[in-house]
Specification:
The structure is a single chain. α1 runs antiparallel to α2. A 6-stranded antiparallel beta sheet has the order 3-2-1-6-5-4, sandwiched between helices. It is of the alpha+beta class and 170 residues long. β4 and β5 form a beta hairpin. The chain is 42% helix and 24% strand.
Length: 170
């Protein structure tokens, strides 16, 4: 069942004829087909837009050598695509077996004093994402949806990316 329609009685109180019901049914079917097509077109337009953003992002990545510019570029593209205002990027220090933050943006403001090898991360969720290579999602104590996903260099997990939506229940 995709929906239903109710008909009010005719003004002249006569019964609705079978031919009239057939006409209304045909009209509804055509309307449904038009709505379905419009939905497909909208979905394709959205997908093309996303692919265009991804293509531009990939092009910029191939020319960016500076780490600071690279993480700013990542943030800018995530912000455009998802509308986020908070992003944290972590790297695993292979020799010292620790994780530290290399990028810290809260409410669209970058705080570089929370970045660098001294900004060691203790959050067990981030360590789990890096250790397993799997994406984790959840809800924090304020009802905000968060997501953390691993960063790869080839087949090796080198860090994680973490963000959340400021509006609860989003």
């Amino acid at each position: 069942l995709l929906g239903w329609m109710t008909l009010a009685p005719k003004e002249n109180k006569k019964r609705i004829r079978h031919a009239e019901l057939d006409y209304i049914s045909t009209l509804l079917n055509q309307t449904w087909i038009a709505l379905e097509r419009a939905n497909v077109v909208l979905s394709l337009e959205t997908r093309v837009s996303e692919l265009d953003l991804l293509s531009q992002f990939s092009e910029y990545l191939s020319f960016t050598q500076d780490e600071d510019m690279l993480v700013e570029l990542v943030y800018t593209n995530f912000q455009r695509l998802l509308g986020i205002k908070d992003l944290f990027i972590y790297l695993r220090h292979p020799e010292m077996d620790k994780v530290y933050k290399i990028f810290h943006v809260e409410n669209d403001e970058r705080y570089d004093q929370f970045e660098g090898e001294t900004a060691v991360v203790d959050d067990p969720r981030i360590h789990e994402v890096i250790r397993t290579g799997r994406t984790m999602t959840g809800e924090d104590e304020n009802g905000r949806f968060w997501v953390a996903t691993s960063l790869y260099a080839g087949t090796s997990t080198i860090g994680a990316l973490h963000t959340f939506f400021r509006q609860p229940n989003m």
